[in-house]
Amino acid sequence: MAKKDDLLNILHRSPASVAIDKPPHLASVPGGGEKRSANAMIALQLGLPFKGETDPRIRPVHRIDKETSGVLLFALTRVAQQSISMQFQNNRVEKQYLAIVAGELREREGVVEAPIAADPNDKVRRRIHRTGKPAVSKWEVVDQFREFALLRVRPLTGKTHQIRLHLAHIGLPIVCDPLYGRPPRRGREPGVYLSDFKRGYRVKASEEERPLLARLGLHAEALTLDLSFDSGPSLTGSSETRASDEKSLTTIRAEPPRDMRAAINMLSKWGR
Fold first, then answer.
1. Active-site residue 196, yes or no?
2. Out of 57, 153, 214, 262, which could bridge 49 as a Cys pair, Cβ 3.0 to 4.6 Å?
């Protein structure tokens, strides 16, 4: 049985699928020496295995970066895994993200079409390159501040680091992005600080300013996909179902976590 502090917020649960609100700083699946992962934690919480071939079990169908918060979906059966994975592979899943970015905006919305390839000099990073695979991202302004903005981004394809790289490519890097963002000021940890945008703000000599947001400013806000293969309704009641193109589409949503809400609230108050 999972400890109370390790319980994840379940957004949607049905006989064939489960979606959680993944907190930041938690890997989606094991790897890279990670001791904790979302799939192992939700497996423990639901009393299901995350290895083996028996059903039901926790079966990953997509991933979001460790520092990204928000909707993370798992299949519970092989049939569900095949159906959902196929939708992701064929770009039939509508994905919606919120991003806090740094930079000046001249437009209220836009589309980034730029191919993404591996970086030959860094196995983690990606780069925009003509030899890469096609990638398309739509974005729109939710709120505008002096030196920052809150964007809603809809990636139409699903390449690694796509949103992070595409926004950096158009001069709007996501805040606190160690790979594609702006470097922090000398002697200061990466983060969004009140002193970055509140005029006249000064930190006392005896104190050290703490960041409002100290991780990648990206949140997976919603997923919309076809779960009509499922044999039962949501057991949580927090997901939405709507008819579209003669099939039932389900939208699963997650509100931004506390750290991101705090940064947005302070930007709204002092950053205009």
1. no
2. 57
